[in-house]
């Protein structure tokens, strides 16, 4: 899912702390939807009016089952297995009741949420909550010995099937919930580094750092619930990536438990001591080991923040502006360009859809930190030269308002029978327009073949000197088995991404959903490298079976 | 060896092209020393005067043998082996004569050069020069089948023993000279990317790019001879790293030939499609495969350049200034701080040593690209606040003058019997002073135990938000077997680096010299990861045996 950002106006640090409290308090997410159950909402009137115009008449499905009405298979763990797990973490940290198992049954992709609305579901056989690196290590030993698959579980926000309760060849599967690996373990203020336990959520991490005057500055849309270890394992990228970089670039060290040994990686900034093994675990999504601690580059909480929105005649002019910003350096902390379709519908302005159908393509910029007036002036020159005109501070603040609440809208759409999903890719600047066209064509054709009207929006929210991300939001009037129909259309999109030179994922990851396409991205020799590492560290294959490495290649 | 930089004054691009010509023309390096044989020089009078004061009386050794007087073992390749090699690349590109073999007998560390001064030497059994990726691949197939070890050879500038003609368990060893993999293969000006053949030297790459108005901007001291593939394989870092980053961060894609398959890696800027496999090959030093093409981030040739030198009361004040520059961002393109010992001797000012024993610690800054006045003013504020005072443009230009000629001085010192070597490490800002002390103590004690007076200098030349490099130059009056005496002292230094939390190498790499310490840096589980990849891609172990992965671990 896409990134979000607390509302602007006050000092950056203060606001963020305020935005965080529900996740800091450890309130669990809605079991079959996004976020805080108390924030679930009806579809706004404007959206209800727009849907028939865009997608035709859609029948509202019956209400989803209550948690207590869902049926899952009995736990496959023996009493002896459960006793052994309890011996490691304590009886109170092993849950094999249905409610806990259903809550850990998957991530938060639209297919995940649609599966949660079915009366029959799959689920892990137990949820186990270790409190330390050593307990993680002991659990991996135990699981390898007993033949129990292990699904590492951080914030539960995967949207690529990385949390499916797949047991592979093993007799059972547990969800390894890392929420008790919590806290700020070390701060080095001189070096600007902090070490966090992997299960610490985004808001908890920022609150702990804020007490020291520091900020990490990683704000993906999953921020409120996702964990530090999950950001690392899935190569996350947040809204401030123009200023602070992808999560990859923030990580300076990792502690990892594998079934066959431990690692402490990232000894030094700037090293030529062989390949950087930190990078082997960034993006490994729990298939090689479990990240238990993450050392991160942090910075003082920015004292100033400036918002400015821009309007471009069209998406391509906006892209040119963003490219020049990316290649000249030192620009905004946040920059995001919506295409004409996204700008017009202003999906992000929850409660305002349809009110003001803005023409052209809109850009939001946020500046944080030092030298804001100079950076803004230099960026403004570039954006003006590319055809943009400033639409002021207010428009950017309004655009940002409620961005954390975006995913709640999806739940309301699903309640109304409207299919809504997102997907993302990236490529070089010179290939961006071609890739966007290929993805949109594949989406429209795939959904049209499923006899569904669709509405596709796109934005660019992560820029690099050599290229950028493309993030698509699709609304579709899918009738029938939405999961199956979408999977067929999504497969076509993945084929189109590969054919048009894009990456199969910019920041959602591979999981199980993208695994069949990974070989086309990194080649069979690339898959062999991943398989060799997997075989060495996890010879019994207990860790997240079926994720990242496509099953066919693994068998070969 | 440390980075260098063409002299300033004119437009950056113009000057560099002028600086490059000898290497562009493919003139081979001096066989038993550095660089252009015509530039070999006598020790300047000032240095000759200083040495007895610093190191005591040193006996000048006899003259080294001429190339034609060196004895090497007969080639172990059979006539059949040689015919098979000739079938792949053509007879004229397989050299098994003594001169070619001696020229490829190793890199350019001081022990390498001292070994080149011996009458009996080791050498590869032939030098083979493929012209394409497919020829490299065919040679690897052939070598794997026939049991011939392969040492990939770029510019021949390794200073960590990565080019030793080690055959491992195989019956022969060839030097795979990549100089014919030459040229600019592709330029994408919109995305700011260029693809270069791996054997292209630094100056040739810059000349090819300059014809398109572009620059890579990677200027390590090895620049004139080292190759693009070598920069990638050894995780090089150049003098402009403060502005353009380490070579790691410039690489956007790689093409690699391994004994069991090919790879094209780096599909997209910004990807979450599993671990970044480009990073598996950056730092692999030819043990997994041979890098044949490198895609790189490039930028327009900077139109402006500004030099400024600074003086600090001492090294620690200078470090504080550099730290604040690194953590605030947007500073100089080049920044380098010499400690009191290096400042005093001004080693880099060839021909001026001893003339002006400057007090304090000197800093050189260079700004290239956009917004130079603003960047300089901001950096100046930081450096002044940290206790620095500007010593003007002239001092920085003078300091930089002749930096490409620094390594020639080492040859003259060796001729005079003075041992001179460099080593480097890195750590976090908070640990920098401790690490520097530990290395200097180990150097002094190690050399003192070898009954040698020594003079140790240190500088910081690569800065990161979380830490910095430390680069040491040591002069020693080693009597007897200088190679053996130094190896003992260097081992003590490596132990001290590990104990004090530093990395075993910041930018020289692992090679064979640092391999025994790698397990202490990445752990036994880390070594197992490297070994598993090696076993998968190079099951017969023909590629650079003994480099990077310590032999003991490989056997386990």
How much of the sequence lies in strands of chain A comes to 15-25%
How many strand elements of chain A? 19
Helix amount of chain A: 25-40%
Query: What does the average pLDDT of chain A come to?
Result: 91
**Largest interface (C-beta under 8 Å):** A-B, 90 and 90 residues
What is the oligomer described by this structure? homodimer
Please state the overall shape of chain A, judged from the principal axes of the Cα atoms.
globular
Report the span from N to C terminus of chain A. 33 Å
Radius of gyration of chain A: 23 Å
- Could you say which structural class the secondary elements and strand pairing of chain A correspond to? alpha+beta
What low-confidence regions of chain A span 5 or more consecutive residues with pLDDT below 50? 1-25
Count of helical regions of chain A: 21
Largest sheet of chain A: 8 strands, antiparallel
